[in-house]
Write a structure and sequence with these properties.
The protein contains 6 helices and 33 strands. The protein is mainly beta and 520 residues long.
Length: 520
C-alpha cells in the first residue's frame, strides 16, 4: 500500500458521519436482520394439516445487513444483504433453512470483519476508504475521482462498473429460470444458488450479456408460461434508457437491444403481454452524478411520466411512448392484450414511496408513505387514450396471479393489504383476493399485530382451474416476535387456515419469493 492509500485511510477515520433526524425504522422490529444461518429439519404445525399434495420449496428473499452499516442513520431497506429462507414441504412436513447470498460485496466485508460500503443513499458518504481499496481503486484514483466530482464529472464506465459491485446485495427476489435458481437485484447480474444447500455458486450473467455497466437486470423477469422464455431488462444509471433482453428457456440470448428514454429513472419492474413489453418510465429520477447526496433518487414530477410499449419479440420494432399523469409503480400484477389495447393491472402510488422527497427526514415511518392502490389501466394503442379503474381503496402491495396466467387475461389476483385496525411499523396486515369478473375484493384480516409479506399462489394441480390452489406466505407476530409459515385456501380466504407452521427463528420482512414444485 502506498503513501496516498495510507493518507486516505488516516483521513477516513476522522471523517464525520451525518446523523439522522430520528431512529431508523429499517433496523428495528421485523425489519431488523437475522444474522444467524440455521437449519431446522422439522417445524411444528400449530394449526391444521400441511396438505400432502403440496410438494416443493418456498424460497423467499429478505434484505438485512450482515454487519452494522457504516452509517446506520442513512441505511435504507434496499441496502441489506440478501438472505434466502427456504421452506421445504414434503409428505405433510416442513423443514427450513436460511443462508446469506454471498456476493463479492459480502465476501469482502466478511474478510474484513465489518461493513465497508454505504448504500443507495450514502454510497460515497459512508463507504470506507478500505472498501474502495478492496474494490481495486488506488489512492491516486480515488483522489482523481474526488476532483472530478467537484467539476461535475463522473467516473469512467469501467470505474462505474467497479463501483456498482459495492451495491450488489442480491437481495430482492429469487427465481427459477434458465435451468437455475437465481437471486436477483436490479442493476446487477444474477447470482446462482444451489437449490438444496442454498450455497452461492457465483454470478450468472447469461453468457456476458447482462452487465452492471449496462443496467444489469431488474429483479422481476417475466417467464412465459409453457415456453419458459425469459423477458427482462436493466435500466441505465448515468443516462436515460434501458437494455431489453429476451432469453430462451436455457438462458441462450434471443434478443438484446438498447432503448433510449428522456432521463435516467428508477424502473423497478415492467409488464409483458403475449405480444408486447411495457415499460414504466416515471419521475423517480436518478442522480448518479451526485453520489454525495443522500437523495440520489429524487421525485421530480415536473419531468413527466410515460409508458413505453414495444413488440416484445421484434428486435427492430419502434418504441411508442404514451404520456400519463405523474405516479409511481413498483409492481404490476399482470398484463394482457385486448384487441389493439393493452390492459395493465398495477399498484399505483401518487408519488415515489420509501424515499424522502424533500430531505427533511431520512427515514419516514412506514405509515407515512402514500398508499399504493390496485388500478386497472387500459391503453388504446391506436388513439393513445388511457382509461383507469381503481379496483379498491385499501392500500396494497405485492400483487400476484396464478403463474399459468402470466402475460394473458386473468380473472383472479391476490395482494398483501393494509386494513384498519393495525399497529406498529408493519407493512401489511391482510391478504386480499380480487375477482376481476365480478369486481369483488375480499380480505382476510390477520389481526392487529400480525403482518404479512408477499403471498404466492400455488396451483392445486397442473390442470386445476385458475383460482384453485393455495396461498403461501410468512407472517410475523409483533407481540411474540415470532414468525409462521401460513398456508391458505386461495378460493376461500375466510376459511380456517389450511396450516400454520411455526418457524424456529424470526423471518424478517422481505420482498419476493418463488415456489418450485418438487417435480422441478
Amino acid at each position: 500500500m502506498g503513501l496516498a492509500e495510507d493518507l486516505l485511510l488516516a483521513l477516513d477515520k476522522k471523517r464525520p458521519r451525518p446523523r439522522a433526524f430520528r431512529p431508523n425504522p429499517y433496523l428495528e422490529g421485523n425489519f431488523a436482520p437475522v444474522g444467524r444461518e440455521s437449519d431446522a429439519p422439522s417445524l411444528e404445525v400449530l394449526r391444521g394439516e400441511v396438505p400432502r399434495d403440496l410438494r416443493g420449496t418456498l424460497y423467499r428473499m429478505s434484505p438485512g445487513p450482515r454487519f452494522e452499516p457504516p452509517n446506520p442513520d442513512l441505511y435504507h431497506w434496499f441496502d441489506g444483504d440478501g438472505m434466502i429462507d427456504a421452506f421445504v414441504i414434503e409428505g405433510g412436513r416442513v423443514s427450513h433453512k436460511n443462508r446469506w447470498v454471498r456476493t463479492e460485496k459480502l465476501a469482502l466485508e466478511e474478510r474484513a470483519g465489518h461493513a465497508l460500503f454505504g448504500g443507495i443513499r450514502d454510497l460515497a458518504l459512508s463507504t470506507t476508504i478500505e472498501g474502495w481499496l478492496a474494490l481495486g481503486f488506488s489512492g491516486t484514483e480515488l483522489i482523481t475521482l474526488q476532483a472530478q466530482a467537484l467539476l461535475g464529472k463522473g467516473p469512467s464506465e469501467e470505474q462505474f462498473e467497479r463501483i456498482l459491485r459495492a451495491v450488489d446485495r442480491s437481495n430482492t427476489s429469487i427465481q427459477r429460470m434458465a435451468g437455475r435458481l437465481l437471486s436477483l437485484v436490479e442493476g446487477s447480474p444474477a447470482h446462482e444458488i444451489d437449490p438444496v444447500t442454498l450455497a452461492t455458486k457465483g454470478r450468472f450473467d447469461f453468457g456476458g450479456t447482462v452487465r452492471s455497466g449496462k443496467g444489469g437486470m431488474v429483479a422481476h423477469p417475466k417467464i412465459e408460461p409453457g415456453t419458459e422464455t425469459i423477458y427482462t431488462f436493466g435500466y441505465w444509471g448515468g443516462r436515460g434508457g434501458l437494455t431489453y433482453h429476451v432469453f430462451e428457456k436455457d438462458g441462450a440470448v434471443r434478443l438484446s437491444r438498447d432503448i433510449e428514454a428522456p432521463f435516467p429513472a428508477m424502473m423497478h419492474d415492467f409488464s409483458v403481454t403475449e405480444t408486447r413489453a411495457v415499460f414504466y418510465h416515471l419521475p423517480a429520477v436518478l442522480h448518479m452524478d451526485d453520489m454525495k447526496s443522500p437523495n440520489s433518487v429524487r421525485w421530480q414530477p415536473s419531468r413527466g411520466a410515460r409508458i413505453g410499449v414495444v413488440l416484445r419479440d421484434d428486435p427492430a420494432a419502434p418504441v411508442r411512448w404514451y404520456e400519463i399523469p405523474p405516479c409511481y409503480v413498483f409492481h404490476p400484477m399482470n398484463a394482457f392484450d385486448d384487441g389493439n389495447a393493452v390492459v395493465l393491472d398495477i399498484v399505483r402510488y401518487s408519488r415515489l414511496p420509501l424515499f424522502d422527497p424533500g430531505g427533511e427526514t431520512m427515514n419516514p415511518h412506514i405509515e407515512e408513505y402514500p398508499p399504493g392502490l390496485l388500478v386497472r389501466l387500459r391503453l388504446d394503442l391506436d388513439t393513445g387514450r388511457i382509461s383507469e379503474t381503481i379496483l379498491d381503496d385499501a392500500p396494497c402491495e405485492f400483487p400476484v396471479v396464478n403463474p399459468r396466467f402470466a402475460t394473458r387475461r386473468h380473472r383472479y389476483g391476490w395482494v398483501a393489504a393494509r386494513i384498519a385496525p393495525t399497529c406498529g411499523r408493519g407493512i401489511m396486515n391482510a391478504i386480499g383476493r380480487v375477482d376481476f369478473e365480478t369486481g369483488e375484493v375480499r380480505y382476510r384480516n390477520l389481526g392487529r399485530s400480525t403482518y404479512t409479506n408477499e403471498a404466492l399462489f400455488v396451483p392445486r394441480t397442473e390442470t386445476a382451474p385458475e383460482g384453485d390452489g393455495y396461498l403461501i406466505t410468512t407472517v410475523y407476530h409483533a407481540d411474540e416476535a415470532a414468525s409462521d409459515l401460513l398456508i391458505l385456501d386461495a378460493t376461500n380466504l375466510d376459511a380456517e387456515p389450511v396450516a400454520v407452521v411455526r418457524a424456529r427463528q424470526r423471518v424478517p420482512f422481505g420482498f419476493h419469493g418463488t415456489w418450485v414444485p418438487a417435480s422441478d
